[in-house]
Amino acid sequence: MTSFAHKSRDHGDTSKVEGRPTKIDRPSWFGSSLNPAVAISADPMEGSEFRASVSSNPSTTKREPTLPPGFSREAFDRAIDDLRGAIGADFVEINDVPLNAGNYYHPSLSHDSYAVLEEDYFVPSAVAWPGSTAEVQAIVKWANRWKIPLWPISIGRNLGYGGSAPRVPGSLLIDLGRRMNKVLNIDEKAATCLLQPGVTYIELYEELKRRGLGEKLWIDVPDLGGGSVVGNALDRGVGYTPYGDHWAQHCGMEVVLANGEVVRLGMDSMPGSKTGQCFPYGYGPFLDGIFTQSNFGIVTRMGMFLMPNPGGILPFMISFMHKEDLQPAVDILQELMVSRLLGNVPSLRLGLWDAAVYGSKDQYWPENAGRPVTDEIEAEILKKADLGAWVFYGAFYGPDELTSAQWKVVQSKFAGIRDVRFQLREDVPENSYLHDRAAVFAGVPTFRELAWHQWIPNAGELFFAPISGVNGRDAVAQVDMCKKICTKHGFDYLGTFYVAQREMHHIVTILWDRSKPEQRKAADRCIRELIRTHAELGYGEYRSHIATADDIMATYNWNDGAFRKLCEQLKDSLDPNGILQPGRSGIWPKDYRGKGWEIDGVSPLKQVKSESGKL
Q1: Could you report the per-residue pLDDT of 471-485, keeping only the tens digit for each?
Q2: CATH classification of 313-550 is 3.20.20.70, yes or no?
Q3: Is there a catalytic annotation at residue 201?
Q4: Closest alpha carbon to 51 in 447, 339, 550
Q5: Which candidate in 161, 205, 364, 493 is catalytic?
Q6: Beta partners for 394?
C-alpha cells in the first residue's frame, strides 16, 4: 500500500534543509495589497502551490467604496484629502478595487479572502500605510476630527480569524506592516530584541542570520511564519519552544492612545531607560495586558525575548492508534506538563488533520461527494496514511545525554497505552510532517502547515478556539461535542490541542468550499452553535473571528456581564469618540452600543448608510 506520507505537496517546505537555512523560501510577491490578483498574476509561477486559494477568475471592474458610517462620498473624499495631506498622498489609497481573493502568502487588504459572512460586508473604505509613530499619531488625530473608525493591522494574515478585515464596514485600515517593519535593536548578550509591528517571524529569523546570530539566538515561531511577531503576541498567540507563550515573552511597549498621545510602558516609561527590554513590569500598575485583544491603543513597537541556543534538540512524535486513547494520553500529559518534564509547547493533533497535510479528501475517499468523514472512513484514511488516531509532537532541548534521558522517561510514561508508537526523525519517511514540526520546534519558519488547504476544493477556514483543562475528561467532552456539531452542519471535525502547563488551546478548523455560499452559511451556523454549547458546559474561547466576537463576549457574562462592562468603561474613558476598532473582541464604544452593530447570527447585519448632508 502506498503511504500518503510520501506524497505531500510542497508548501515552501524547509524540512529538507538540514541545519538552519539563511533564507526562507517564499514567492516574489510575498506581501499584501488591496488587489492580490494584480501582484500574483505578474509572477511566472503558474500552477505553483504558492498560488493556492487565489481567485481563479479575478474581476477587473472597480466598485464604489464602502463609506464610513454616516458619510457621503463628498465628505469622505474631503476626509481622505485631509489624510493625504497629513501622511503623504502615496500612502493612502481608497478601497474601490474588485474584491479578489488573496491567500496566506499575499492576503487581500480589501476584504477577508475567507469571508464567513457576505464577502462585501467587512470591507474598509481605504488603507493608510504610516511610516512612523508620529504618522500613526497623525492618523489617530485625523480620525478624531472626522469621526471615522480605524482598524490597525500589523500584517493582515490572521488566518481563520478575519484576516485584515475591519469589524465596522467603512473603517480606515491602518497597515503597519509595509513601512513600520524594522528590527530596531537586538541585544546579543541579553537575548532580546525591539521590533516594529511589521516585522514578521521570517524577517526576524533572517535578520538574526544576517547579523551572524542565527545559531546563537533562536526565535519562537507559530505554525506559519508569515505573521507579525508583535501582532501575534498581542493576540496572545502561541508557538512551540519553551518560549511558546508569546505574550509572556514581551517586554516593553510603545502605544499610541486614541487621543493621539504616545505612552511607553514598563521600564521604558522612564526617559533614557537602560532596562526597557529586561524587566516587563516597571513601576505601579501593570497596564500592558489591556492592549492585547483590545481596542484601547495602537502598539507601535514592542520588546521581545529571544531564546539562546539550548545546545541541542530532540524532536519526536508519539502515535496513539485508537480514538479511545485520547483520555489516558491527556491524563498522562497532565502529569508531564505540570511537573515540567516536557520542555516545549507540544501539540496533540487529530490523525485526520495530519492526513490532510499529506493528501486531499478526494484522494483518500473519491466517493465522498462533499460529505463529512465517518468513523469507518476515518479509520481507512488513517490506515492509508499510516497515522494514529491522535499524533503527539514534542521536543526536548539540551545536550544529547539530557534529551535522551528525557525521551526514555516519556516513553515509559506512555508505554502502557495499547499499540502506542514512538518515533524520532530517523524513524520516519523523508516527507513526514515530523521534519516540519522539528523545524518549527527549532524556531525555523515554515509553510507546510498550509498543506491542509488541499483537504477540500476552494478551502476557506474558520477557527474555533476553546480552552480545555489538561485532563482527559475535558478533552474527550470537547472532541465529542465538536465532532457531533461539525458533522451536523456538514463538516469534518479537524482539531489540535496545543498543550501548556495547565491548559490546552483546542483549535478546531472548520473548512468549507468558498465556491458554495450554502457551505459558508453553514460554517457560520456551526461555529455559533459550538460557541453556545461549549459555554453551557463551562468552556470559553481564548480568541475569535471578528464575526463571532459578540457571541463570545456574551458568554463571559458572570455577574451580569461585569467583565464586559469594565471593558466598556475603559473604552469610553480612553476613546471617547469610539474611533479605535469599534467591536473588537465584542467591546463597543458608547456611540455604537445597542444600535444594531452586534452580530448574533440571527439578526440582520447592520447596514452602513450614507448621509448626503453629513459634514
Answers
A1: 999 999 999 999 999
A2: no
A3: no
A4: 447
A5: 161
A6: 316
